[in-house]
Amino acid sequence: MLKMVALFTLALTALPARAQAPEEAMPATAEPETTLVIIETTLGAITVALETERAPLTAANFLRYADEDRFDGTVFYRALSVDWGDQPNGFIQGGTQNNPERILDPIAHEPTNETGVTHTRGALSMARFGPGTATGDFSIMLQDQHGQDADPDEEDPDRQLGYAAFGHVVDGMEVVYAIHGAPVDPELGEGWLKGQMLANPVTILDVRRVDPAEGE
């Protein structure tokens, strides 16, 4: 890097002198458009920013569930823990649990290598079976979980596409940690889900767009 900087400096000093032109304002880099949503739970509120510009299909799906009150009364039911990285680590999962009275049609998959929205700390991600099957269940990462990102070099087609991240927590990570820290029932869950299900699921009371007046 130092060699590159030195070469760049030498190139500048080699240019012929000329009258100094007025400095032009550099164009501001616009932040991607997001929409703020509050997830009210019995353990507190989590405010999230949905990536409506970078992951439009997935964010719009979540907003429709919120606007139609399809999340209200559902629960956070799962807390996955992993023993690597900063602790606590893993994710929490909640939503409609495929309730036929709540779910909408599955949405197309938006892989992270196309959206640029990755599984960093506090990221929201759609739960699914296969790519293109996501409906109304979602997860929130406690730490970076880039193993869930799309990886075109993977041999497994499912892992090539990864999971669809579509937003991130902007306030209330302490609530995410509290949900994750709630006791799990070692007997609940089937297969590899066994031992990851909360003994007392945390109720989602309300999911709504943030009223601009709330920020005043």
3D structure, described in words:
This protein has a single domain, classed as Cyclophilin. Strands 1-2-7-5-6-4-3-8 form an eight-stranded antiparallel barrel. The protein starts with a helix and ends in a 7-residue tail after the last strand. The chain has 216 residues and is an alpha+beta fold. 19% of the residues lie in helices and 26% in strands. The N terminus is likely disordered.
Percent strand equals 25-35%
CATH arch. level architecture: Beta Barrel
Radius of gyration: 22 Å
Question: Per the principal axes of the C-alpha atoms, what is the gross shape?
Answer: globular
Which CATH class applies here? Mainly Beta
Determine the structural class based on helices, strands and strand pairing.
alpha+beta
The CATH homologous superfamily is named Cyclophilin-like
Alpha-carbon distance between the termini? 45 Å
CATH topology: Cyclophilin
Order of helices and strands: HEEHEEHEEHEHE
Catalogue the unreliable spans.
Answer: 1-23
Q: Residue-averaged pLDDT, rounded?
A: 88
Number of domains: 1
